[in-house]
Design goal:
The complex is a heterodimer.
Chain A (H helix, E strand, L loop, with lengths): L2 H34 L5 H5 L2 E2 L4 E2 L2 H32 L4 H15 L2 H15 L6 H25 L3 H9 L4 H30 L2 H4 L19 H10 L4 H33 L1
Antiparallel strand pairs in A: 1-2
Helix pairs in contact in A: 1-11, 3-6, 3-8, 4-6, 5-6, 6-8, 7-8, 8-11, 10-11
Chain B lengths: L1 H16 L1 H24 L2 H4 L4 E2 L4 E2 L2 H32 L2 H16 L2 H20 L6 H11 L1 H13 L3 H9 L4 H30 L2 H7 L16 H8 L5 H33 L1
Antiparallel strand pairs in B: 1-2
Helix pairs in contact in B: 2-13, 4-7, 4-8, 4-10, 5-8, 6-7, 6-11, 7-11, 8-10, 9-10, 10-13, 12-13
The chains are: A mainly alpha, B mainly alpha.
Subcellular location (chain A): Cell membrane
Membrane topology (chain A): Multi-pass membrane protein
Protein name (chain A): Phosphate transport system permease protein PstA
Chain lengths: ~280, ~280
Amino acid sequence: MNPKLSQIIAKICLGLAMLFTISILIFIIIYILFHGLPILTYQFLSSPIQEMGKKGGIFPSIVSTLYLVITSVVVATPLGVGTAVYITEYTKKNKITDIIQFGSDCLAGIPSIIYGLFGFTFFVIFLGMGWSILSGSLTLAIMMLPTIIRTSEQAIRSVPQSYRDVTYSLGGSKWQGIKNIVIPKALPGILTGVILSMGRALSETAALIFTAGMSIRTPTSIFSSGRSMAVHFYTLAREGLSLPMAYGTASVLIISILFINFISYILMNQYLKKYS
Amino acid sequence: MKNHQEKIIEKSILIVAFSTVFILFLITLFIFKEGLPFILNNGLTRLFFSTNWSPSDGSYGIIPMLIGSLSITFGALILGVPLGVACAIYLAEFSSKTLRNILKPMIELLAGIPSVVYGFIGMIFLAPVIRSYFGGPGLSILTASIVLGIMILPTIISISLDALLMLPRSYKEGSMALGATQWQTVTGVLLPAARSGILAGVILGMGRAIGETMAVIMVTGNSVKVPSSFIDSTRTLTANIALEMGYAIGEHRQALFATAIILFVFIIILNILAMKIIKKRRI
């Protein structure tokens, strides 16, 4: 075939593939919001779950979700950022960093159902935490680690070496340099990772069913059981309890995800502008 | 004094850094602790040489679910790989930088959509379409393959895109200087040079497809039998664990954990393979 012609055909086909992929995204968002937005009233957001979700609202699952997301972030962030600091600041690339990297990459690939089983046998039963926000959050925290480590590592690496040199030349110690210069400078990048991993916690279902339980009551502490919005949505949809309620819950999920991605996008862009 | 404090901080950060490895060890330990007794008592034969899964009679053949998982993963790859690689080529070579900066966050958003939402759309929108065009129950291997094919797109696109963007500029410039068109450059130079990176993306996508649970539960119909065609209902290994774990006790529970071991080992192997491929490229 004429190279010029095949160039044109290829360009069109590749463009169509891209268009198709983006259309799927837009279709999903519009489909959910179109059916769900009419359901979203103050009443829906603030009422308890009634008759297993057929009536009432989703207030308890909003509270559960907030509990889960916040607790897991609080646990995962120091671990993830600490790991990134160690890899980047305290050691050169060697066997130890390879092993840590391997651990992190493996954690990233493990499917959520396996995390669910692990959380169930380890946190719920072995450590006796029962079905609770705490068990769920700790499981989620492990699932978040790889994202936080990877983004923090990139963010810390992109802080120019000269910043550190200045600290040392002023008589500052390594830790002072990290605490006062490197981490603050890398903060927008680190936050991007933390916020993105909040999205993961928000969407998670399989791991939470076995760890946080399915209670429809509003959790009062991290030791109560509670079902997150994603779990509640799954139950509504799969058991065919109420389609409108399912659409409503899905809309809240989608809007939260859009919001999270938007924030992390803004942060990332600011960050990139600063260093490139 | 200050030096002493620095030492303590360094030691504690080292301990934190090993948390991933420690957790990986714990996960392995606890999954094996629950499932290994079943494998040791029965060997793998009881799981692998039977097409009958009925825990109430003590039959634990995972072949129907294995076929379900593999056929859906295969179907997802058939759809997801060409589409994903095409998108990656488009983003790397044919889109302007501004357009790429708009499209990339949208791909990330595609990765952020909860799997239950994918499953829901598959169940409520796609399954009826499949039912009316292809027949069958609608909740089928085909439906699940399409849903999973879309779900693995972000993985395949982002890793393939990285592989393409990492290539030295000289490759492209050399080819264009010889008078090749952009498309000839892509097929003749860039794709062959980036093939191992793309392969890594495909392997990770495969891992994601095999491990996916909730979306698959919602679109496969979950019947335990060897499927006879691609519009037939099926159940995957992951779905089997999620659906039955809630009430499984004794040997049944052990058998489910044994299935989890098989999944776990398989996915770790896939990950190591992908890591090896990616690392080789970097050196």
